[in-house]
Amino acid sequence: MAITAWQSQGIESPWMHQVDAAQAAVSGLHVAIATGTASGKSLAYTMPIVAAVMNDEGSALSDPCALYLAPTKALANDQARAWRDLALPGIREAVVDGDSNADERAWARRHANVVLTNPDMLHYSLLPGHERWSRLLRNLRYIVVDEAHAYRGVFGAHVSLVLRRLRRLAEHHRSSPVVIAASATSGAPERSVARLIGAPVTAITEDSSPTPERTVVLWQSPTDDGGSSATRDAAALTSAAVRQGCQVLTFLRSRRAVEYVASLVREQHAEDASTPPGSNAIAAYRGGFLAEERRALEDGLRSGSIRALATTNALELGIDIAGMDVVVTAGWPGTRSSLWQQFGRAGRGTSAALAAFVAREDPLDTYLVQHPEALTAQPFEETIFDPSNPNVLAPHLLAAAHELPIANDEHVFPENSGEVLDELGARGLLRLRPTGWYWTSRERPHDMTDLRGAGDTVRIVEEDTGRLLGTVDSASAHRHVHPGAVYVHQGVSHTVQSLDVDDAVAIARTEDVEYTTFARDISDIRIISTAQEWPSFEVTMHIGEVAVTSQTVAYEVRALDGTLVAVHDLDLPERTLHTQAVWWTLADRAVAESGIADLPGAVHAAEHAAIGLLPLFASCDRWDIGG
Asked: Phi first, then psi: what are they for 537, rounded to 5°?
C-alpha cells in the first residue's frame, strides 16, 4: 500500500542513497543524510517510519512513533502536508507548535504516531511535560532532525542539549530511538551530527539522484550608476524574470528589504501592460507574519498563483516548493551552505533553473563575484557549535534535573557537566541527593533559557480595528516598532503610535507616508573576564565574557530617495546581553612606534576590513564583528 502511494506521487523506486539511509536506520544506527537539494532525503527517513508503523500489529497505545524536528514552523507544516498527501492507513500525523491549540495538542498526545514540532516546543512544553507525553516517548522509534545544518552557533548548542535531554527521557520511558538527521549543505556531517545528538552516527553522502541543470549568475552593479544597489537590482531581476513567465524566489537580508523589493516589483508590474496574465501576484514573506498568512503564501507558491515572493531566509530551508524557475539572492547570506541552500530552491524536480547572486557594495561580495571558485570549488562549512559552553549548558542541566534527577554516571551531556553541576549546587540551584541532582525551586527552569536569543514576542496591533498585524521579537522591537517607526506589511504602510515594553504590544496606524525610518543605536562593550590569551609579538588576542549594552536613542526620517529629513530622539531602555567575545590589544610601545597619526581611524579601518573578510572564513554574521 505504501509503495502504491509513493508511485501515485511519481516515485517508482528509491535511489540508492535513500535505501542505504533507510537500511542503516532500521538496523539501529543513527544516520546523517548529507546529499544534495531535491535528492529525496524526506523519502529516506519516511521509509523506516512507515515500515515500523505498518508492520506493527499492536494496539494504538503501543504502536511505533516518530518525532520530526524542524527549525521552522513552515517546514514542520510542509512535512505534515506531505504525510497527509501520502494518506497511508495507520499514520496519524500532528503538528505541535506555538500555533496549536489545547485540543490539538491533547489529540496529539493521545493518538498521533508522527509528531512534527520544533526545538522551542520540545524545550518549553514536551520535555517538561514528558509524563503527559509518555505514550509517545515510550514508543519512540525514530527522531528526525531535518535541515541539521541550521543548528549552528549558540542556537545549535541549545538544540544539541535539547536533543540530549530528549534521548535521556526516551531512555527513562524505556525506548531507544534512532536519530535520522538530514541536510543538503553540511560540511563534515558525521562529526557535526554526532556532536549535535551526543552519539556516533553513520553518514550517507553519496548522492545517486539526478541533478537538474542550474545556471548560476554572479551579478555586480555598475560602480558608476548612482541609482543602483543590490536591493534595487534584485527587484529589477525579479521583475524581468516574472515578465518572462518565470516563478521567482528572491532572498534578502532584512525584513525591511523584503517589503521594499516586493513593493518595487508590484509597482513595476502595475505599470507594465506586457506582463503576462496572473503574473502580478507579488508578495513578501518574512518572520512576524501570522500563521494563516504564512500558510496562504506557501500554498500560493505551490499552486503558482504567486509569481514572485521576496523573502528573508525564512524560506531557505527545504519546504517542498516545486517549479521555482529563478532564485535571486541579494548579498552574501553568511555561509556557502546558506547560499547553495537558497540556490537549491530553484530547479527542484527535473526542470532547469537559474540562480543569481547579486553583490552588495561590500568587499566580500565583490571578492566572490571576482573569484567564483570561492563559491563553487570550496566545501561547505562544518556546522560549528559548542554544547559544552557553560553559559548554555548550565540552564539545560537545570531543566534536565527538573525533568528527571541527574545521576553522576550519566554520559549524555558534555564531559564538563560534572563541573557545571558542582557549580550549580554551590549556588543553591541544584541539590545532590543519593539518587542524583535535584532542582530545588518551584519555578520552571525551562523559562530561564531562550533558545534563539530573541526574547519574548511583541504584538503589532492596528489602531482602528484592533487587528493583529504581526509580531516582532523583543530584541528587535526597539529598532523596528519604536514610536514613530514606519512599519510596512505587504506593501501597506503603518506608523507606530506607541510601544508598550511591559505589555509587549505596539499600536500602529494605517497611514500612506512618503518616507521611511531608520533607528539609531549606541552600544557599549564591557569586558567581564578573560578566559584565554594568545600573545604574538606586540599583539595579544583574547577570548572571554563580555556584557554588551545597547540602546535605541533616536530615529531618522528619510525621503524615499534616501534624503535625510529629520532626526527624532527616543527614550527607550537599555538592553544588556552577556556573551563571549574575541578582542585584541596592542602593546603601548608598538602604538607609539607605529607612527600612525589617527589611531582611532586606523582601528576603524581594521574593523571594516574584518567585517568585509571574516564571514568568508568564520561562520559568523558581519554584524557579529562590528556595526
From this structure: 55, -120
What's the full length of the chain, in residues?
627
Q: How far apart are CA 592 and CA 590, in angstroms?
A: 5
**Residue 536 domain-assigned (yes or no):** no
Distance between CA atoms of 449 and 560, rounded to whole angstroms? Answer: 40
Q: 372 and 500 share a domain? A: no
- How many Å apart are CA 385 and CA 192, to the nearest integer? 9
218 falls within a domain:
yes
User: In which element (H, E) is residue 338 found?
Assistant: helix 336-343
Dist CA 446 CA 53 (whole Å): 32
**Coil/strand/helix, residue 598:** coil
| Cα 12–chain centre separation | 33
The DSSP secondary structure of 182-201, one letter per residue, reads E-SS-BSHHHHHHHHHTS--
Number of domains in the chain: 4
- Mean pLDDT throughout 511-521? 94
The segment with the largest mean pLDDT, out of 19-23, 187-191, 224-228, 349-353, is: 19-23
Phi and psi (nearest 5°) for 386?
-135, 95
The DSSP code for 378 is S
* Residue among 216, 196, 179, 211 at smallest CA distance from 36: 211
CA dist 37 to 6, 189, 337, Å? 19, 15, 11
Q: Exposure of 494 by Cβ count < 10 A (0-12 exposed, 13-18 middle, 19+ buried)?
A: buried
Other CB atoms within a 10 A radius of the CB of residue 287 amount to 18
Do 496 and 464 sit in the same domain of this protein? yes
Please report which residue ranges of 200-350 form alpha helices under DSSP H: 230-243, 255-270, 291-303, 336-343
Question: Taking the model in full, what pTM does it have?
Answer: 0.84
Please give the single-letter amino acid code of residue 101.
N
Q: Compute the distance between CA of residue 580 and CA of residue 528 in angstroms, rounded to an integer.
A: 10
268-322: per-residue pLDDT in tens? Answer: 887 665 555 544 489 999 888 888 888 889 889 888 899 999 999 878 775 666 5
3-state secondary structure of 248: strand
Instruction: Tell me the backbone φ, ψ of residue 357, rounded to 5 degrees.
Output: -105, 120
Same domain, 75 and 187: yes
In tens, the pLDDT along 151-189 reads: 988 899 999 999 999 999 999 999 999 999 998 877 889
How far apart (Å, rounded) are the C-alpha atoms in residues 377 and 421?
A: 45
- Residue 482 lies in domain: 456-513
Same-domain pairing of 188 and 132: yes
Contact present, 256 and 284 (Cβ < 8 Å): no
Separation of alpha carbons 218 and 358, rounded Å: 6
Residue 596 lies in a domain: no
- Look at strands 486-489 and 492-500 and give their pairing: antiparallel
Domain co-membership, 370 together with 420: no
Q: How many Å separate Cα 217 from the centre of its chain?
A: 25
| Residues contacting residue 502 through CB under 8 Å, at least 6 positions apart | none
